[in-house]
């Protein structure tokens, strides 16, 4: 189970880097996903990235949550 996932979009590609709990960064895979017809992984990771991005707020060091 990944502890977190980095998603880096560019053009019609997504670089997806799932970080596995307890493993060094060098042991984690880097997946390159292309946007192709019928491809579900690109769409799912892309939708997830867009949802997080849409809910993001600028960092304000003095803001109390």
From TrEMBL:
What highest taxon heads this organism's lineage?
Bacteria
- What is this protein called in UniProt? Uncharacterized protein
